[in-house]
Lipopolysaccharide kinase (Kdo/WaaP) family protein (Phocaeicola faecium), 246 residues
Amino acid sequence: MSLFNHRTLVVHAACKDLESFVLSVPERFERGEGTVIHKGRNELRKITYGGRSFVVKSFHRPNLINRFVYGVFRPSKAKRSYEHAQLFLEAGVGTPRPVGYLNIRKGLLFDRSYYVTYASECPYTYEALFKQKFDYEDDVIRAVARTTAILHEHGYAHKDYGRGNILFGKTSEGIKIEIVDLNRLSVGKLDLRAGCKNLERLPATPHMHRVFADEYARLRGFDAEECYKLLVAFRSTQPGKIDGLY
C-alpha cells in the first residue's frame, strides 16, 4: 500500500482468520452487500461471511480540517470503538464481540474508518420497552441499572447513552445486556450526580425510574430516593420526550 493510499488494519488476536474480511469491507459497502441496519451520518450493515454474521459500522468522512486532525493526531472513531469495547469487556460489561477495525488514509488526510463486530444475539433495544409489552420489564431495568453501575464504578460514562444503544435479551441465565456505539466515552470519577446526569437521554416512566434508582443506588452505596429525584430532574431537561415519560 502506498503512502498516498494507506490502510491500517487491527484485528483481535482471536480473529486473525478474519483479516481478509475486514480488509474487504470498504468494497463490500460499495457493492451494497449485506443488510442495512442504520443509515445516517454513519452506516451500519449486517454482513454474513464464512457462515457467520457480523455488523460493520462505516463512519462518515470528516470535514477537511478533521481529516487532517484524524490523519495525524487523533485516533479514529473506529479505533476508539474497538479499544472501548475491550475496556467494557474487561470490566464485565457486555458489548458485541469486537473483531477489529480498518482506517483508510490518503496522504496525510484521514478518509474513512470501519469497525467490525460479531452480530449481537440480543433481539431488542431499550426503545422496545415503549413499543411492546414485556412481562419481565422490571428485570430489564434492573439489568440496565446493574450494567450502568459497573460502568460508572469503573469511571466510564458512555456519551450517547440513549434508547438505541442499549440492547437486551432474555436467556436461560437471565437478562443479557449489551452496549453499542462506543466511540464517545468519558473516563473519570462519577459521583451520584454525575452518574444520574449520564442517564438524562434515557427515557423512563416514573415506575421505571424507581426500579432503576433502587438497583443503581444499592450497588453504588447511594441513597435511592436522592437517585430517583436526580434521574427525574436531569431527564426533565431533555427536549422531545415521549408523552407520559420522563
